[in-house]
Amino acid sequence: MSKRNMHTQLIAMVLAAGFVASTARAGDDGDYAKLLKEKAGVLVTVKHVLKVNMAMLGGEQENESELTGVMVDPKGVVLCSNTQLGGFTAMISKMMGPMGGNMTATPTDIKVLIGDDTEGVEAELIARDTELDLAWVKIKEPGDKTFEYLDFSKGEKPEIGSRILMLRRMGKYFARSLVVGDARIGGMTKKPRDLYIPSGALGGGLGLPVYADSGSVVGVLIVQVPDAEDTGGNPLSMMSQATSMQDMMSGLILPAADVAKATKRALETTEDDAEKE
After folding, report:
1. Which residues face 69 on adjacent strands?
2. Rounded to a whole number, what is the largest CA-CA distance in the chain?
3. What is the pLDDT of residue 24?
4. Which of 54, 210, 236, 241 has CA atoms 20 to 30 A from the CA of 146?
5. What is the C-alpha to C-alpha distance for residues 208 and 94, in angstroms, rounded to an integer?
6. What is d(CA 64, CA 96) in angstroms, rounded to the nearest whole number?
């Protein structure tokens, strides 16, 4: 297989991560309504233009895109999926090593849409954590306004079999309608780090919070991929195995405590950099 075809397949696989149809589950409609009422306000839409530079794919391309993020600070800081905000290129390079080539993806013209806003306010990318598949965007001029936000430091640790819920937005074509996903904790792993494993797909929502029945946040849905040394520089051989593909691309839950630590670290680093300027 040519490098061009390999890159194309990898990009398609990565961008499709987390967008698997979820299995229907019986649940308490009251839980769904409660989640919609109490947690919808922390979800925002992040619009951006993604400039992707890949020599093997014909040079630079620009694509308008949007994703759903979660407000994690009252001053206008939004947590997003690093994969969906251009981090997929670093993911591919990590898996392929030197074969990955020189790939970059830069989000520009970033705007955050809150509530029913259709125009958005200007924002900027302030930090990434490629290993944790997280990225943070901050509204440039929040003024004196404070925003409804989710505090991951007040998370809950689930057990095997615990019911979990996720709230996500559909795309612009469907008026960004809110949808609840429902699953259970099917397992846990210590490698490559502490992660909760859903028993089934939650219906998308990379970078979005996962909640317990109680309404407390459990963690964030992310993607984890192996290093080139684990794939021999040929991740397609690993991806051809159905189990490996499911493990990597169906979405894993990073515990809330780890999300809180990563967010604190990102904000402190950003503040230190601002003081040096």
Report:
1. 44
2. 55
3. 39
4. 210
5. 23
6. 27
Q: Which two tokens stand for residue 251?
A: 């979405």
pLDDT of amino acid 20: 39
pTM, to two decimals: 0.81
Q: How far is CA 264 from the centre of its chain?
A: 17
User: Is the bond preceding 98 in cis, omega lying within 30 degrees of 0?
Assistant: no
Stretches where the chain sits below pLDDT 50 are: 4-13, 15-26, 241-243
3-state secondary structure of 100: helix
The total number of structural domains that make up the chain: 1
Please give the angle made by the CA atoms of 198, 227 and 239, to the nearest 5 degrees. 60
Tell me the sheet residues that pair with 254: 220
In the chain, the amino acid numbered 105 is A
Kindly report, residue by residue over 228-247, the tens digit of the pLDDT.
566 555 555 555 544 465 66
* Residues spanned by the domain of 78: 3-276
Handedness of CA 34, 38, 42, 47 (dihedral sign): positive
Among 202, 252, 233, residue whose Cα is nearest residue 10: 233
Q: Give the C-alpha separation, 253 to 250, whole Å.
A: 10
Total residues found in the chain within this entry: 277
Q: Which amino acid is at 24?
A: A
Burial class (CB in 10 A: 0-12, 13-18, 19+), 240: exposed
The CATH number covering residue 12 comes to 2.40.10.120
